[in-house]
Write a structure and sequence with these properties.
Its main location: other. Assembles around the rod to form the L-ring and probably protects the motor/basal body from shearing forces during rotation. The basal body constitutes a major portion of the flagellar organelle and consists of four rings (L,P,S, and M) mounted on a central rod. There is one protein chain. The chain has about 375 residues and is an alpha+beta fold. It folds into three domains: about 80 residues; about 140 residues, no CATH class; about 110 residues, no CATH class. Helix content is about 20%, strand content about 35%. A six-stranded antiparallel beta barrel has the order 3-4-5-11-7-6. A four-stranded antiparallel beta sheet has the order 2-12-14-13. Strands 17-16-26 form a three-stranded mixed beta sheet. The longest helix has 15 residues. It starts with a helix and ends with a strand.
Amino acid sequence: MIRLATLALVLCLTPALALAQSIRIKDLVEFDGVRGNDLVGYGLVVGLNGTGDGIRNSPFTEDIMASILERLGVNVTGEQFRPRNVAAVMVTSQLPPFARAGGRVDVTVSAIGDARSLLGGTLIMTPLNGADGQIYAVAQGSVIASGIEVQGQAAQIVQGVPTAGVIPAGARVEREVDFDFNRLAQVRLALRAPDFTTAERIERVINGEFGRPVAAMLDAGTVVVDIASAGMRSPSHVLGRIENLGVAPQTRARVVVDHRTGTIVMGADVRISRVAVAQGNLTLRVEEEPIVVQPNPFAAGETVVVPRTRVGLDEDPGTGLAELSGGTSLSEVVAGLNALGVTPRDMIDILTSISAAGALHAELVVR
């Protein structure tokens, strides 16, 4: 079985390495105004091999198919559609920052009816709208579905998600977001993980780069850079100069445990106080063995079922009461927990109990 020490060795850094590592500012913050915009559209996928929507169960598929055909000059008034090679889909994408007309973006296509698979289908020209209702891109192309479905008369196998797929570079940008980035007098840097120490370090590194007060920390999650004080031509030039500066971030001590997989991840700053732990397993066993009792051949009785239950209670000796000395580093904490000699799933319960006792000096996140 995988021990906590192995997981910590693979997933965690030693405190010395964590403190010495510098991260680029561009990987720690979001620049004000430099953001994407979500797009969504409603379209039709055609060319499916009998795996499309059932028109009886998805009447909206018939509506969009009739609308598309009428726009193409085909009169379908009063006609009855019963194809199985089309599917109504939702098309989603994200318009990246500073996208220009004529550029291309990826799109994701997801079935909304009872289609079984989008494999081999083609998305027909679909407008993609922003939150303001305006059309910013138009999507079209062959759908790449990662899943597969095999079905017979009495059995069915589905691997992956065949009702969703992607179209790489499947949408062309038709409208640009009206935003003049170079007119900004200040640029705010929003930290992805707000922390006063990290924000102060970013402020100090930027001011050291320019040799004068250019950046100012507003709070744990915001640092403002004054463009005029930087003495450069535009905000773009300022961000190009500061985004690759290295900063050693600080984060809260945190332990993340996943009950489903038995995974434990500990940060380098996790500490525990001196504590004693006893761990054992309790097994309750209940067995039902009913007995059928029949009367004698010449007796005027009935056959009855008599219940019989066996109940047992087993308790393993466990590890006894073990003392964990206060850890001053991640390796000492891991060594102390491994001294208990339990499995990762049992370790999750032990960490939860240590946290409840107030001896775990870290944020415990249970997923």
